[in-house]
Amino acid sequence: MCSMKLQQHGEHVKPAYRPQPGQTLSTAGESTDEARPGGQLSGLVRRFPKTERATEDVTTLNWVKSVYGQALEYTGIDRSTRGGILLWGVIGAAGGVFAAWTLAGMPGQYPWNPNWIDYLMAFPMGVFFLLSGLAFFVWTARAELFRPNDEPIIFDRQRRKVYRVMQEVQPGWRGIFKPWPFVATSYEWDLIDAEHHAIVGSTGSGVTRYHALVMVVRKSVDDANIISSFNVGQAVTMTERTVPMVWEHIRRYMEEDGPPLPEGETLGRTAPPQGWWQSMAAVGCFGPDYFKWWRNFPIYTLLFHVLFPVFVPLNLLWGTCNWLSFKTAVPVNWPREVLETVGPPLAV
After folding, report:
1. Nearest-angstrom CA–CA distance, 175 and 151
2. Are the beta carbons of 80 and 282 closer than 8 angstroms?
3. Which end of the chain has the lower number of beta carbons within 10 A, N or C?
4. Are 175 and 138 a contacting pair, CB within 8 Å?
5. Nearest Cα residue to 243 out of 261, 231, 258
6. 184 with 230: CB under 8 angstroms?
7. Of the candidates 169, 165, 161, 208, which has an alpha carbon nearest to the alpha carbon of residue 189?
8. What is the pairing mode between strands 64-67 and 71-74?
């Protein structure tokens, strides 16, 4: 179990944003409307003013884990997506090994009946694919295993503060071999700007956009340099429509004394799975929640069964990665200063 000292606003700067040697400006630039105009297809889509409604509808996407007297706690790690990074690492490593095996001619012979020049070209390519796949697996394992069991965010509207617990990831490939300490920080709400970000990616059969609600932290009232940024919720589960809805819920809560939970919503299911079988249920329909999936998501569940040969191995692998991620997770507690400030959680 890990506990830590609470760092105040400005004491902690995200490693990737720290000024270069001899410089004083953040590598991320300034957080102003002029410096970050938005409107991009990939990247910054929109900046959200705190005084204007982003949308009429609101939601938490079941990410609220606790409600306090005048504070709200969001979970930072969705149990249904945990293990996904490691899953891609396993797939990448398997692909690298398979490519190296094929190029090396281990099955018996090459399909194109090569001569010595083909062997000479195939060997370095095989080594490249093998090392690339293994390096990708190491990176994903580093990112997924022995991480905090949660990286929660508390929005304290009474004191206009935002508290975070996170793992400080070191940037770049060299960062894999550096310590990733746990950090607790406190930010001034008035020095946080909310933004809608998007990334254009491929699904294999087409192109799609992945959306995220990003909080950008300015250094001070007089200094707009960005010292940190963080996502609210899981970007892979958000859409163009839900990003402003989640932000609007937070904005109303902090700016207009809005309710901690939208009407009809309840606290999210954030407790970690207890064992491998529950991890299977967290990532798909093949688990103890099998009949719940049929009731709540009949179309998706039917699709899983139609594509049974694909989804069963994938779910088995993802469920195992999910279980490993939670099995190696490090429990993290809020600093006592934060708990004494927000008080005990309420029964909602």
Report:
1. 20
2. yes
3. N
4. no
5. 231
6. no
7. 161
8. antiparallel
What's the rounded Cα separation, in Å, for the pair 164 and 303?
38
Q: What are phi and psi of 79, to 5 degrees?
A: -60, -25
DSSP structure class, residue 165? E
Contact 214, 195 (CB under 8 A): yes
The values of phi and psi at residue 197, to 5°, are -110, 155
Q: pTM of this prediction?
A: 0.86
pLDDT digits 0-9 by tens, 75-94: 988 888 899 999 999 999 99
Q: How many helices (H) and strands (E) does the chain have?
A: 8, 10
Q: pLDDT for 124-173, tens place per residue?
A: 888 888 999 999 999 999 999 999 999 999 999 999 999 999 998 888 88
Extract the tokens encoding 321. Answer: 């990665």
Q: Answer for the pair 70, 260: CB distance below 8 angstroms, yes or no.
A: no
Give the whole-angstrom CA distance, residue 54 versus residue 37.
Answer: 16
* Three-point CA angle 16, 18, 22, nearest 5°: 135
- Cβ distance 179 to 20 under 8 Å? no
> CA quadruple 315, 242, 217, 260: dihedral positive or negative?
negative
Token output for 299: 């179309």
Pick from 290, 286, 282: nearest CA to 324: 282
